[in-house]
Amino acid sequence: MAGRIRIMKARPEDLIEVRELWRQVSVEVGVGAPPPTGDGRLFVALDRDRVVGCALVALEDAAMARITDVAVARALRQQGVGRALVEAAVVWSRDRGARSLCVDAADLALGFWRRVGFGGDGPRLERRVLGPADSLTETESAG
Questions:
Q1: b/e for 93-126, b at 16 or more Cβ within 10 A?
Q2: Which residue of 54, 64, 95, 129 has the lowest C-beta tally within 10 Å?
Q3: What are residue 127's DSSP bridge partners?
Q4: Residue 36 to residue 105: CA distance in whole angstroms
């Protein structure tokens, strides 16, 4: 990923650009992103101060978080921006105690989701994120 890209929590001033990016991507793939429910976070990828990517993640319950969608500007795809957004969602989910992160992947995005560590047989894919208690248990059992 180009060094100039920053991943951060979306700011109110980012929302107009986020909506436009999602509109562009949803036209390309034929789906739109519903807003997160419950305890959620919108991440943006910024190139200087311009939104070039975004991702929504929300807790479904105490053990599961869901990435609602990831969108990256066409010119910056295949450069690690989507991966960086997913990793931000993984950290956010883990910090809130989730053990797994899921996504309902569109067919044309299955390859991306598998490359960033998600698995499963259908459109619903999952990735283990290991909450703090899980990490401690594994460390203790290894020693």
A1: bbebebbbbbbebeeebeebbeebbbeeeeeebb
A2: 95
A3: 101
A4: 16
Q: Mind listing the pLDDT tens digit for each residue in 92-135?
A: 999 999 999 999 988 888 999 999 999 998 789 999 998 554 44
> For residue 46, is pLDDT > 50?
yes
Q: Report CA-CA distances (Å) from 127 to 122, 130, 135.
A: 14, 9, 15
**pTM as predicted:** 0.83
Domain count, the chain: 1
Looking at the predicted structure, is the pLDDT value of residue 139 above 60?
no
Question: Please, what is the end-to-end C-alpha distance for the chain in angstroms?
Answer: 36
Give the C-alpha separation, 43 to 67, whole Å: 11
Kindly report the CATH number assigned to the domain that includes residue 62.
3.40.630.30
Let me know: does 117 contact 139? Beta carbons within 8 Å: no
Could you list the residue range(s) of the whole structural domain that residue 18 is in?
Answer: 5-142
| Residue 30 Ramachandran class (φ > 0 left, ψ -120 to 50 alpha, else beta) | left
Picking from 38-47, 74-83, 128-137, which range would have the lowest pLDDT averaged per residue? 128-137
Bridge partners, 44 (sequence order): 8, 54
